[in-house]
């Protein structure tokens, strides 16, 4: 879903630094993402999941098992205030439960949970709803990075009792043993790894009550602000999607949102997007769906998306996808 989730540049920066050592320019990895060099220089930049996944898709095209390597480099310090709140928690279990309370601050694409089977605790990642073509990459990245976070918190390796994955074993599955060092199961119902439940009570070496309370409170406020922005952006998307055949314009949308045009423009800028970018993304999303699922002629699709001329729609679609609408159809 376009613009369904905003996240930090952490993963993108990690991709760029990983490939930089191999002499690959950032331009090749950022291609098609809409992320600029100026965005990379600002610590507070927020990007969409769609932008992040475009960069990741470029990386996977160059190296199929890159998810495992990237996950290994995603340390707890990459999560800002949440990372420090986790490090200063009293116990390992406290830290995990705090992390699961704020999935938006983790930037995860999964529903995370702790499952107790009586002897083992499974840290599970399920309910993936993003690009199916990147499901394996995201499962690898998620589970390896979660394992790295656990070990950063403890200050040493976390002995795993098992790991399971929704996808079938890839042809490089031998590499998994280097990262998980436990029995592996593919084609499972979720992505998860297990450890002895006694680890939940393990005191953390960097525990600090005062610092933890301060960081946890800042996480709570940041999460409230972040989820509030997401709800606001969701309302904008809902309004625009219902009016693609006659878009209201920035002024009209501001009126529907009960705010001034200036306020709307400022909020969109803070969210890392613009009115036109949102409109284009929603049009592109709808165009792909109509081209794949309906047998409407191109000119009717153009009309439904608010284009006065079929040629304008064709030009826009080529700009969005790199191919003409007729070529995109299955």
Gross morphology: globular
Strands of the widest sheet, in order across it, are: 3-4-7-5-6
What is the count of DSSP helices, taking H or I runs of 4+ residues?
Answer: 17
Could you tell me the strand content as a percent range?
5-15%
The count of domains is 3
The residue ranges in which pLDDT falls below 50 over 5 or more consecutive positions are none
What structural category characterises the helix and strand content? alpha+beta
Secondary structure layout plus pairing:
Elements lengths: L5 E2 L2 H11 L5 H5 L6 H4 L6 E2 H14 L3 H7 L7 H8 L4 H10 L1 H4 L4 E6 L3 E7 L8 H20 L7 E4 L8 H7 L3 E3 L4 E6 L12 H33 L7 H8 L4 H10 L4 H19 L4 H7 L5 H12 L3 H4 L2
Parallel strand pairs: 5-6
Antiparallel strand pairs: 1-2, 3-4, 4-7, 5-7
């Amino acid at each position: 879903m376009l613009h369904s989730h905003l996240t930090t540049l952490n993963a993108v920066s990690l991709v760029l630094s990983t490939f930089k050592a191999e002499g690959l320019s950032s331009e090749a990895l950022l291609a098609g993402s809409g992320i600029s060099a100026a965005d990379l220089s600002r610590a507070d930049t927020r990007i969409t999941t769609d932008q992040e996944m475009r960069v990741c898709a470029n990386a996977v095209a160059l190296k199929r098992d890159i998810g495992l390597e990237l996950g290994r480099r995603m340390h707890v310090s990459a999560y800002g205030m949440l990372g420090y709140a986790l490090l200063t928690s009293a116990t390992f279990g406290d830290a995990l439960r705090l992390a699961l309370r704020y999935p938006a601050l983790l930037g995860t694409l999964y529903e995370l949970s702790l499952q107790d089977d009586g002897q083992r605790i499974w840290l599970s990642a399920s309910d993936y709803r993003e690009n199916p073509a990147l499901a394996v990459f995201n499962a690898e990245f998620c589970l390896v990075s979660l394992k790295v976070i656990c070990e950063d918190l403890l200050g040493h390796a976390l002995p795993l009792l098992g790991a399971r994955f929704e996808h079938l074993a890839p042809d490089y599955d031998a590499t998994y043993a280097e990262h998980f060092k436990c029995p592996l199961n593919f084609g499972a119902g979720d992505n998860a790894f297990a450890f002895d439940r006694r680890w939940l009570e393990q005191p953390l070496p960097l525990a600090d009550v005062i610092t933890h309370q301060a960081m946890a409170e800042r996480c709570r406020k940041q999460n409230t602000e972040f989820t509030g922005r997401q709800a606001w952006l969701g309302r904008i998307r809902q309004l625009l999607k219902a009016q693609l055949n006659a878009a209201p314009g920035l002024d009209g949308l501001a009126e529907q949102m009960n705010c001034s045009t200036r306020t709307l423009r400022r909020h969109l800028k803070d969210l890392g997007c613009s009115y036109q970018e949102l409109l284009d993304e929603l049009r592109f999303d709808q165009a792909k769906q109509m081209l794949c699922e309906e047998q409407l002629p191109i000119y009717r699709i153009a009309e439904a998306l608010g284009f006065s001329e079929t040629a304008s729609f064709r030009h826009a679609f080529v700009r969005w996808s790199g191919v003409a609408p007729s070529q995109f159809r299955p």
